[in-house]
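Sequence design from tokenized structure. All designs in this work follow the same two-part layout: the structure record, then the generated sequence. An example of the structure record is given first.
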């Protein structure tokens, strides 16, 4: 069973998505990831986007640790329902509506996002069937919606190739945890014409 590791709701169990629809981030990987993000000083007060959210555990963890606003984006009806239950749980603990669920395809959500929408921290844990060109296209759409010092975390199988980073994003770190690999990227400065 997954849980919120730290922060205002630390130790609270999360609802999991039934069946094998999603590939939940293990508590071990989540602990290591958030330890690194805490070291970056990026979570407190951040606007967080959790794409392909599954149960929403990464976004909800961010909310527990002081993120200002969290958007969970999940298209599957069952997973989106679980996201909503976990969002309601953390919102109840926080006493405010800091976590919002969007039942939408990731591509559609990013296309509809206002030009002024920007996030400080973004998680992408796409399903295995999403191929590399589709992931790169999503990253390309996302690049226009990042705060200047944003951090993007892509989680994939350790057997998956590194994402093809589009213009506007560059990798600055990676870490392997057993069968899981995390890539960390940030906005890059594009050369002036």
């Amino acid at each position: 069973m997954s849980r919120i590791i730290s922060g205002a709701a630390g130790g609270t169990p999360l609802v999991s998505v039934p069946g094998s629809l999603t590939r939940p981030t293990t508590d071990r990987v989540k602990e290591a990831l958030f330890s690194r993000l805490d070291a970056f000083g990026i979570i407190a007060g951040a606007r967080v986007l959790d794409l392909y959210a599954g149960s929403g555990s990464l976004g909800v963890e961010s909310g527990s640790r002081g993120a200002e606003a969290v958007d969970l984006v999940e298209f599957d009806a069952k997973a989106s329902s679980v996201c909503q239950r976990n969002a309601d749980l953390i919102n109840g603990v926080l006493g405010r509506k800091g976590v919002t669920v969007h039942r939408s395809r990731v591509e559609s959500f990013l296309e509809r996002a206002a030009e002024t929408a920007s996030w400080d921290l973004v998680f992408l844990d796409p399903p295995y069937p999403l191929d590399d060109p589709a992931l790169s296209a999503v990253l390309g759409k996302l690049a226009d919606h990042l705060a200047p010092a944003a951090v993007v975390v892509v989680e994939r199988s350790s057997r998956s190739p590194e994402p093809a980073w589009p213009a506007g994003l560059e990798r600055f770190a990676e870490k392997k945890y057993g069968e899981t690999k995390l890539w960390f990227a940030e906005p890059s400065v594009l050369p002036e014409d």
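The two ends are 52 Å apart (CA to CA). We note this feature because it recurs in several other targets discussed in the main text.
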